[in-house]
Amino acid sequence: MQIGYKLFAEDVAPKELIRRAVEAERAGFDFVEISDHFHPWLPEHEHSSFAWAILSAIAAKTESLRLATGVTCPSIRYHPAIIAQAAATLQIISDGRFTLGIGAGERLSERIVGEGWPEVGDRHRRLREALEIIRMLWSGGVHSYRGEFLRLTDARVYDLPEVLPEIVVAAGGPQAAELAAELGDGIFSTDPDASLVEAWTAAGGDGPRYAEAPTAFAPDVRSGAESAHRAFRFGPLGWKVLAELPDPAAFDEATAAIDVDAMEEAFACGPDVERHLEVIEPYREAGFDHIALMDGGPDPDAFFAFFADELGPRLRA
Question: Which of 133, 146, 177, 270 could bridge to 200 as Cys pair (CB 3.0-4.6 Å)?
Fold first, then answer.
């Protein structure tokens, strides 16, 4: 079991994200993963920095901490050739500590390039083509590609690492789980859904299984829930909704009925280590072995101390 810390780029300034990653390593986390969006989710969020620049700085300031995108869409806002190059470079400068988490994206960030927002079937076909292009470029040499959606002309990634990054594919259903098994090295989910792991395994999947668990460490339960509500109240909407809404104003309207009580139920709020274990355990039971803690509490340094002294040792036990 590997325990990670989620860097929430939509609500944290760039230099603070780097500082938190350094502190996460000191606290004993195995990895950090960072969201890769152009826009934040909610009007309260005031940031959305470039994930690849943040990861590069973290690689330079840490020694053993593994790094991951959680997750990148390599097929609309980015061309997959750019992601193949970026991931290969980051794997080199991090000395083999990078994992490429990818998914089909959300309208919130992908529509900015003016290509519209494809329906879900087309998004998955685009993702398949993107994975094929990345794998092709990582094989070395010059390549061209002509798919239904994506093109590549005489491209080569010159700097390839000795060991390629693992690719973990975000899956919200059996179709994506099968794609993760076919063209990925692992699977990524935000839900403790054992059926996804089962579908991935049945399709031949064998590798790391990433998930995100919701926590909100605070001096008391209510303040943790209030902090989580401000930052993460979009989470309970579920990915079928999250993928479709166009901007922070739409997310604000869609979350109007989600109150603090709902966040208290969904998140591990407060200082009780048993409550945190209770919320995290379903992910382990569902078969996930790389669990990133998505802390929505008000004090990240207090959370790092709590993890180092109490939660981390209990999870590892």
Answer: 177
